[in-house]
Amino acid sequence: MLGEYRIQGHGAAEIAASVERAVGAGELEPGQSLPPMRELAARLGVNPNTVAAAYRTLRERGVIETAGRRGSRVRPKPATTGREQIRVDVPEGVRDMADGNPDPALLPRLADAFAAAAAQSDREPVLYGHDPVEPELVRIARAALDADGVPDGPVAVASGSLDAVERVLAVHLKPGDRVAVEDPGWGSVLDLVPALGLRTVPVGVDDEGPRPDDVRRALESGARALIVTDRAQNPTGAALTATRARALRSVLREHPETLLIEDDHGHGIVDVPLHPLAGVTRHWAFVRSAAKAWGPDLRLAVFTGDDVTVDRVRGRQRLGPGWVSRLVQRAVVRLWADGAVDTSAVAAAYKGRRDAVIEELAERGVAAHGRSGMNVWVPVPDETGAVARLLHGGWAVTPGARFRLASPPGIRITISTLAPEEAGPLAEAVAAAVGPTPARTYA
């Protein structure tokens, strides 16, 4: 059952540590079965209750799982979850409002920026051992962070927001730790947390961001980390207000050991000010992505944080990819410094499209949310039925199950490419699919 590995120990803590050590070293593999408790107790010469306590500890830490009569086994760490399969196949002729992408027409042209970056790289080749972060990118990013009130800290670069979030979680937490996440929230984060062997603790949100009472309950229940989207929250469009940010900082001051991760992926496409929470807790990270404003394929996000967090992430990066391409970093510098994106115009375009849909829905008695960003969230009584009826009517939207843990059903509509003349017909189709809805919150 265990091959060559023999579990050791006489106390529950020793037995649990023996199993966890073997899992970490790869001597016990994901999915591998553990001995029945009585069998292991007899082998070790201890009381079965001692083994039961050890297994309970391992379950709580997320190291093992119990599969009924099949006993206990090392917990698999999947690359993804069933949430990834919650998608809508968009047939030909159906308008796609489900993909979550920015409007390509609002993205900058990349040819000139990469040509200039390549020319610089010809003059100044980046070699092993060189600084992993482009100095000019640090200067520009730090200036923008300072202007937005983000606390001072070293600047690093990751391959997008999710990469940064994963790396920060990995350098601070251990399997079984709890992470407070927005509900509804970004489906990729809801997938990532369990894939790391961590446990999600849902926190309700409204138009102003995470609810302070929910955050307090999550942290009091033992959550060691909190992930917050400052603006353009996916899928609801929520954005932190000054009042909500003050309330959340107050909660975080009561739990200064909380790892705080803030995601500002909406930078460059939003029309609301930033109200960062960073600096209240001992360990924190603030992540800002280039994907929405300059293009998803750039795969670049800058982040800052406390010295320990950034140093740990950089150290782990050195043992993996090494660094994010300085060629890409130099191209982003060109795009950012040259004003390749008129961020005010982009934000105004998305705001106009969101507001048009929300107003058209309101006229038909359908409540919707979308304070910032590229999405509109519509609470619905029957999620599956609404998605199916809209698809039949020629509109593809995303089922809310992809973004939910315990919050009520809803649908996400991506308005990024919506034409002005489409707002009315879309709202008409949604109203026909879901019927009038009360003006209620979505968590």
Order of strands across the main sheet: 4-11-10-9-8-5-6-7
Helix content: 25-40%
Q: What class do helices, strands and sheet pairing give?
A: alpha/beta
Q: What is the average of the pLDDT values?
A: 92
**Spatial shape:** globular
Strand elements, count: 15
Which spans of ≥5 residues are poorly predicted at pLDDT below 50? none
How large is the count of helical segments? 15
Specify the biggest β-sheet: 8 strands, mixed
Beta-strand percent range: 5-15%
The ordered string of helix (H) and strand (E) elements is: HHHEEEHHEHEHEEHEHEEHEHHHEHEEEH
Rg of Cα set: 24 Å
Distance between the termini: 45 Å
Task: Spell out the blueprint of helices and strands.
Blueprint: H1 12-25, H2 37-44, H3 48-60, E1 64-66, E2 72-74, E3 95-96, H4 111-123, H5 135-147, E4 155-158, H6 161-172, E5 178-183, H7 187-195, E6 199-206, E7 209-210, H8 212-220, E8 225-229, H9 242-253, E9 259-263, E10 283-289, H10 291-294, E11 301-305, H11 307-318, H12 326-337, H13 343-363, E12 375-379, H14 383-392, E13 395-396, E14 398-399, E15 410-414, H15 423-434
Parallel strand pairs: 3-13, 5-6, 5-8, 8-9, 9-10
Antiparallel strand pairs: 1-2, 4-11, 6-7, 10-11, 12-15, 14-15
Helix pairs in contact: 1-3, 2-3, 4-12, 6-11, 8-9, 13-15, 14-15
